[in-house]
Design brief:
With 471 residues, this protein is of the alpha+beta class. The chain has helices at residues 52-64, 163-180, 215-232, 289-300, 304-311, 314-323, 328-346, 355-366, 372-387, 395-402, 413-422, 424-431, 435-449, 455-470; strands spanning 3-12, 68-69, 76-79, 89-92, 99-107, 113-125, 129-132, 140-143, 150-156, 191-199, 205-210, 240-245, 250-253, 266-267. Bound molecules: zinc ion (ZN) and manganese (II) ion.
Length: 471
């Protein structure tokens, strides 16, 4: 039973002002209804003026996704009533969108390259936001700060075959949007997804408005299971719209009156047609993720995995290129594996880390002043300070203060002797040929030395000391 998934993605374009008026889009920390004017409140007689920047951003995306920009595209009114839609219509694009026929490359479930086709991309305005008051109030509130924020709606062909593929597609798309600098990935609700999903031969279900893009894989996984189970039991999957309940991880049926679609699209008489196809040639695109990944493999000798991880976020890729000169391979491992893991654990952003500090850490590791284990400790100490907003101590200072420098074997001799004396059984086991006993003893010594010693060196010291004692 083949799974068929197509997505519609609403991307908030990171322009400074709204799509049809001069209201600022930077409302996240402000009171409700403080970024509004007659245009985005839909007051009678107010006239829209199209935001040049939003069109330019749309064209950048179109070019990056290899799309064809239409010679003429038009704006239409999509009529429906909802309290968050002040004008009772949304200005969008219908039969003549900005661009059509693009592609995004991803990896399929077997790790092979796969093309996801993009059907179209069009500009439209975001509606306002309903705020449901907690505590069972009879009222809902409405905030029009979001009303009129420019959206680019990107629609794919039904080319994805699993929820995991859908996640990989969204990750890739999001990375491209971040490289293009048309989208703020940190903004909540900046990317919202509707998913169409069916099992081949059965009806298609639409899951609406998945607001966290991490929720998409969860919502789709739930739907695949639900639909497959129904088919297995001989039931018919109904063609319907469902809502994803993020907290419970399930979708529920939502056949309401407003779902009976008859939007009566008609051309917006206040907005003329757009003729922007000839502008595409003048757009300079930055190096995009796939090209950068290939370059990282070639220029720095990074593995495919490291290159993909490092280029998955433009800021991480920039960071890596700043520190790579110390030792590209060492830097790739430490940035893509260790540093990224520690950052995720702390919910920290790469921008909080001073590259100079990581350069110094890599140098200490490279010349062998500290062991890998001590390096991790230094990194953790460093990040804990960054996260608390204290001035970041340098790695060398941390090594000095905490005495983490690699020391000559001699210093550990008393510790080794003490451990050997305290564990006669393990010593006996090792002498009678049980290699595992040596690991245990080395582990004990490591614990006492707080990771300062090089484990390989320590193995030698411990095994020699046992042999000497045995003579
Ligand atoms: Zn406005
Ligand atoms: Mn839309």
């Amino acid at each position: 039973m083949k799974t068929i998934i197509g997505l519609e993605i609403h991307v908030q374009l990171a322009t400074a002002t709204k799509l049809f008026c001069g209201c600022s889009t930077d409302y996240q920390d402000d009171e409700p209804n403080t970024h509004c004017c007659p245009v985005c409140l839909g007051l009678p007689g107010a006239l829209p003026r199209l935001n040049r920047k939003a069109v330019e951003y749309g064209l950048r995306v179109a070019k990056a996704l290899d799309m064809r920009v239409l010679e003429e595209s038009t704006f239409a009114r999509k009529n429906y009533f909802y309290p968050d839609l002040a004008k009772a219509y949304q200005v969008t694009q219908d039969d003549k969108p900005l661009a059509v026929e693009g592609i995004v490359e991803i990896e399929d479930d077997e790790g092979h390259e796969k093309i996801i086709r993009i059907t179209r991309a069009h500009l439209e305005e975001d509606p306002g936001r309903l705020v449901h008051v907690a505590g069972g109030s009879k009222y809902s509130l409405v905030d029009y700060n979001r009303s009129g924020i420019p959206l680019l709606e990107i629609v794919t062909e039904p080319d994805m075959r699993s929820p995991q593929e859908a996640r990989r597609f969204l990750n890739k798309l999001r990375t491209i949007l971040e490289y293009l600098e048309v989208f703020d990935g940190d903004r909540e609700g900046g990317l919202r997804v509707d998913a169409n999903i069916s099992i081949e031969g059965s009806a298609r279900v639409e899951v609406k408005n998945i607001s966290s893009y991490k929720g998409v894989e969860k919502a789709l996984t739930f739907e695949v299971t639900r639909q497959r189970n129904m088919i297995r039991r001989g039931q018919t999957v109904a063609r319907e719209t469902r809502h994803f309940m993020e907290g419970r991880g399930i979708t529920t049926s939502s056949r309401g009156k407003e779902e009976a679609h008859d939007y009566r699209y008609f051309p917006d008489p206040d907005l003329g047609p757009l003729h922007v196809a000839d502008r595409v040639a003048d757009i300079d695109l930055p190096e995009l993720p796939t090209a950068r990944k290939d370059r990282f493999m070639e220029q720095y000798g990074a593995s495919a995995n490291h290159a993909r991880t490092l280029t998955g976020d433009p800021r991480l890729a920039d960071f890596y290129e700043e520190v790579a000169h110390v030792d590209p391979a060492l830097a790739a491992t430490w940035v893509a594996d260790t540093l990224l893991g520690e950052l995720n654990y702390r919910d920290m952003n790469i921008t909080a880390v001073p590259p100079g500090h990581i350069i110094e850490l890599l140098e200490l590791l490279k010349i062998g002043t500290i062991t890998d284990r001590a390096g991790v400790q230094v990194l953790r100490t460093l990040l804990d300070a960054c996260v608390e907003g204290r001035p970041c101590e340098t790695p060398a200072a941390i090594v000095e203060r905490e005495g983490l420098g690699k020391t000559a074997g001699d210093e550990f001799t008393p510790i080794v002797r003490a451990v050997v004396a305290a564990n006669p059984q393990a010593v006996e086991d090792y002498r009678s040929g049980k290699e595992g006993a040596l690991n245990f003893l080395v582990g004990q010594v490591m614990k006492e030395t707080r990771g300062r010693a090089d484990p390989r060196e320590l193995r030698k010291i411990v095994s020699e000391s046992i042999r000497v004692d045995g003579v």
